[in-house]
Amino acid sequence: MTAHGPNHQPSRSVLSRGSYREALRISEILRKETVGGMLLVAAAVIALIWANSPASDSYFALRDFTIGYEPWHLNLSLGAWAADGLLAVFFFLVGLELKREFVAGDLRDFRKAMVPVAAAVGGVAVPALIYAAINWGDPEAIRGWAIPTATDIAFAVAVLAVIGSHLPSALRIFLLTLAVVDDLLAIAIIAVFYTTDIAPVPLLLFLVPVAIYAFLAQKYRRFFGLNPVAAWLILLPIGIIAWALLHASGIHATIAGVVLGFTIPVLRSKASGGPDAGPGPAEVLEHRVRPVSAGFAVPVFAFFSAGVAVGGTDGLGAAFTDTVTIGIIAALVIGKPLGIVATTWLVTKLTRSQLDPSYKWIDLLGIGLLAGIGFTVSLLVAELSFGLGDPANDHAKVAILAASLLAAALATVVLRIRNRQYRRIEAHERVDADSDGVPDAYQRPDS
After folding, report:
1. DSSP 8-state symbol, 108
2. CB of 164 within 8 A of CB of 12?
3. What one-character DSSP code corresponds to residue 390?
4. 235 pLDDT more than 80
5. So what's the pLDDT on residue 268?
6. DSSP single-letter state for residue 442
7. Can you spell out the DSSP letters for 304-363?
8. Which one of 172, 174, 337, 390 has the fewest CB atoms closer than 10 angstroms to its CB?
9. Does residue 6 form part of some domain?
C-alpha cells in the first residue's frame, strides 16, 4: 500500500500500530475480560432486581450479614468482605498488569506511553474537576470527587462484544492502557485520600509477609516449578496474612493486592533460559488469577455493591435531583471523553505529532465514551466516600449505573458509525502474504 494509503503511519503518530506480540496479548486479555464483563453486568442486574423486589429485605440482610473474627477486626459484613477481600484479588491482577506494562509492555517506551498516560491523567482530572465544581460548597457531597475517575475495562469490552465492534488493535491497546493507568491513579487516590487513622504496628508487620512473598516470587521456578498447587498452597496463605495486617493498619486492604502483584517478576531469569524461553511468573499468575478475578471476585462485589433500593419514582426523583448524582453523570459522560480527547489533542500539538491517518478524532471520542463506563472501582470509591446506608451512597450508585449505561449507549452510536472503517483496518492487519505467521502490517511500517 502506498505511503498515502489508509494505514500509513507517520514517524510521530498517535494510535500507530504496535508490535504483533503486544496486539496478541491485548486481544487475549480482552477476550477474557469480555466474559467477566458479561458476568459483572448480570450480577449487577440481579442485585438491582432483588433489591427492588418484594424480597428486598432478604437481599440487604444477606449483604449486611456479618462473619469473621472480631479480635482481628475481621468481623465484617458480606458486602465489606467483597469490597475489602475479593477486590484484593482484582487489585492483585491490576498490580501484575501494571508491572508487566512498565517492564515488558508498551509503557516501558516513554514515547509510546506518553500519549495514553497523559490521556488517562486528563480522563481522571477533568471528571474530578467537573464533579467538584457541581458540588462545590457542600462538604458532604464533595467527598465523592474521586468516584467518576475510574474506567471499568470489563464492562467496556462487554459493550464492544454486544455491539459487535471490530475495534482495531491500536484502539484496543489505547483503551486498555487508559484503563490500566486509571487503575494506578485510583490506587493512589484510595491510598492517599481514603486512609484516616493508621496503626503503625500492623503496618510494619505487613512488610514481613510481603518480604517473604517477594523472595518466594523471585525464586518462583526454583520453589514451585510447574506445579500450580504448590504456588497456591504457599503464596496464598502468605498473601492473606499480608492482607489482614494491612486491613488492621487502617489502609484499605485492597492495596495489599497491588503491593503483592508488584513483587512478582515479569521476565524469566537467565538461569531459567532467558526472558524469551517461556512465560515469566507474572504471566503465569495472570493466567491463573484472571479467571478467579473476572469470573468470581468482581461479579460478587458487583452483586453486593450495585443493589440499591430506588424507592419508585419518588426515590428516582430524589436521586436525579441530588448534586451527587448530577455531578457523577456529568463527570463520567462528559468529563471522561472531554479529558481524554482534549489531553490527547494537546499532547499532539506540543509534540508536533498527529493521529495515524487510519483514524479520526471521532475514534478517540468513542474510546473516551467507553472510558466513561465507570463501575467496579467507582462503586468502591462511592462506599469509601459516603459509607453503606448513607443516602448519598445510594444516589451515587444510581448515578454510576445511569452514567455507565448512557456512556455505553453513546459509545455504541459513535463506534457503530466507524465500524466499516474498522473492518477495513482489521482485514488489512490480517494479511500475511509471506505466510510467516506475522501479518505484513506489523512488519512493514509503510503498509
Report:
1. G
2. no
3. -
4. yes
5. 62
6. G
7. HHH-----HHHHHHHHHTSHHHHHHHHIIIIIHHHHHHHHHHHHHHHHT-EE-TT--HHH
8. 390
9. no
In angstroms, what CA-CA distances link 47 with 35, 59, 168, 329, 401?
19, 8, 34, 21, 12
User: For the residues 411-437, what does the mean pLDDT come to?
Assistant: 80
Q: How confident is the model at residue 121 (pLDDT cuts 50, 70, 90)?
A: very high
Side chain identity at residue 95, one-letter code = G
How do 66-67 and 76-77 pair as beta strands? antiparallel
pLDDT digits 0-9 by tens, 378-423: 988 998 899 877 888 989 999 999 999 999 999 999 988 888 888 8
The C-alpha cell at 80 is 465489606
State yes or no: pLDDT of 195 exceeds 80. Answer: no
- What pLDDT score was predicted for residue 271? 47
C-alpha pair distances (Å), 277 with each of 23, 30, 86, 158, 219: 20, 25, 33, 33, 16
Pairing of strands 354-355, 66-67: unpaired
For residue 274, give the DSSP letter: -
Q: Of 420, 412, 328, give the one whose Cα is nearest residue 366.
A: 412
- The Cα angle at residue 285 between residues 284 and 289, in degrees rounded to 5: 130
Q: Give yes or no for residue 178 having a pLDDT over 90.
A: no
Q: Is residue 4 in some structural domain?
A: no
Question: The C-alpha cell of 45 is what?
Answer: 442486574
Question: Residue 416: which CATH number?
Answer: 1.20.1530.10
**pLDDT tens-place string over residues 128-149:** 999 999 999 889 999 999 999 8
Q: Are 246 and 206 in contact (CB under 8 A)?
A: yes
Which residues are CB-neighbours of 19 under 8 A, at least 6 positions away? 442
| Whole-number pLDDT of residue 273 | 45
Look at the chain and report how many structural domains it folds into: 1
Q: Are 13 and 446 in contact (CB under 8 A)?
A: no
Residue 350 lies in a domain: yes
Point out which residues pair with 67 in neighbouring strands. 76
240 part of a folded domain: no
Q: In this model, does residue 1 exceed pLDDT 50?
A: no
